[in-house]
Amino acid sequence: MLKLLLWRPSTHQTHTLTLLHQNKSTNTTLLSLSRFLSQSLSEDPYDPPFSPTSQPHKPKKKKSNSEPDPKVPIKSDLPFDFRYSYSETNPSVEPIGFREPPKFSPFGPGRLDRKWTGTCAPAQQQEVDPERVAEERSRVLGDPLTEEEVEELVEKYRHSDCARQINLGMGGVTHNMLDDIHNHWKRAEAVRIKCLGVPTLDMDNVCFHLEDKSGGKVIYWHINILILYRGRNYDPKNRPVVPLMLWKPYAPIYPKLVKNVADGLTFEETKEMRNRGLNSPPLMKLTRNGVYVNVAERVREAFQTEEVVRLDCTHVGTSDCKKIGVKLKDLVPCVPILFKDEQWIPVLQIINVMIGKSVVNCEDQMNINSIVQEIVTNKASVAGHLSNFKGCNAVTMLYSRAEAQYRIGNAWKIR
User: Fold this and answer.
1) Which uninterrupted H or E stretch holds 285?
2) Is 312 within the bounds of a domain?
3) What is the CATH number of the domain that holds 301?
């Protein structure tokens, strides 16, 4: 009992604990009240209780549309007309129509200081000085590379795992590709270009436009692989301004490629040629996005023994097949006489009637016409008249026309 009484708290201690408990409760109540008052005071009548105090919103400054952008329109000093594709279009051929209004520029409304005509944005001729352009290009290229320097660059960029590569496809040398080339030239001396598809038919044309439009130099060319060098004195900070095309413009409408009657033949003769071509085996079988470097040469060799050549374009596609016919017409030269799209099997036939055709003077043309008339009426020999035109390009023209008529069963003779 004595031990239990000793552990019993005294009256003074009990009073002290009671006061501490009351003070603690009072402080908690005051703290809660102050917190409630500080969080509930808000100017917004719809502000719910216990929400943070709303901050006054600062009005955002709106940009007025009346202020013009100092960077628009873009002014470029490049001395050539801007086109979607430089290597796959012929400026000398005028379109007969447009699939979209020419007033809509692919560079965007008001973004370029040149007017879009539907096919190109022509440069101002007053500002183009050919001599100054040639001097500036030679200054950027600098001294020619030595053989050791060329070998070093080729070994660095010719491999397929090269990071500085641009793929050149069915569009050829496009306008936006020029900007990609200059972007690579910021950190690399050269860029690797891999060409596929229709542009590979004429790689000389691709190399010419790459050098002419970019200002660089092709230092390596193997089949469809090119390496384009930027030049010794190239400065990325002073690179030319290349405004980008925001979308691909629709291709204009050009004259019909395959005529109902081929030039130099009648309707019956053209029909006979087409039937012979359909029944002949194909010279080559082309694939989509393939490498067509040797196609033109193969067609020329075939024309030494054949009149009609057939190319199997089953997997090429309609658009690419027509482009192949356009290019071969100028490269061989030849005349496409049939493009058949029956059951999605395009067949391209080419006739060599126009091989050797060239400009002749009026006297030779009159003599040729008289000889042709004599052959038709009197069934005379062609070989007896060829000696009068030795050294003249009209000989090949006359011989080709006579041979074509003879092979399709006409009355012409070749001895």
Assistant:
1) strand 284-285
2) yes
3) 3.30.110.60
Q: What per-residue string of b and e applies to 189-227 under the rule 16 or more CB within 10 Å gives b? A: bbbbbebbbbbbbbbebbbebbbebbbbbbbbeeebbbb
- Whether residue 203 is predicted with pLDDT greater than 90 in this model: the reply is yes
Q: Is residue 23 in a domain?
A: no
Phi-psi region of 379 (alpha: psi -120 to 50; beta: other; left: phi over 0): left
- Distance CA(366)–CA(108), nearest Å, equals 55
pLDDT number for residue 23: 56
Cβ contacts of residue 274 below 8 Å, gap of 6+? 337, 338, 349
* 365 within 8 A of 393, measured Cβ to Cβ: no
The pTM of this model reads: 0.67
56: left (phi over 0), alpha (psi -120 to 50) or beta: beta
**Range in 52-61, 184-193, 354-363, 394-403 with the lowest mean pLDDT:** 354-363
Which of 333, 283, 286 is closest to 314 using CA atoms? 286
pLDDT at 100 over 60: yes
Residue 120 within a domain? yes
Under 8 Å CB-to-CB from 324, ≥6 apart: which residues?
A: 198, 201, 286, 292, 295, 311, 313, 316, 348
H or E stretch at 335? strand 335-342
Q: Per residue in 31-62, pLDDT tens? A: 565 555 555 444 555 555 555 555 666 666 65
Distance, in Å, from the CA atom of 133 to the CA atom of 123, rounded to the nearest integer, reads: 14
Question: Domain limits at 180?
Answer: 70-253
Of 106, 114, 99, 102, nearest to 85 by C-alpha is 106
Domain end, chosen from 253, 277, 306, is at 253
Q: Is 286 within the bounds of a domain?
A: yes
Task: Select from 253, 287, 306 the last residue of a domain.
Answer: 253
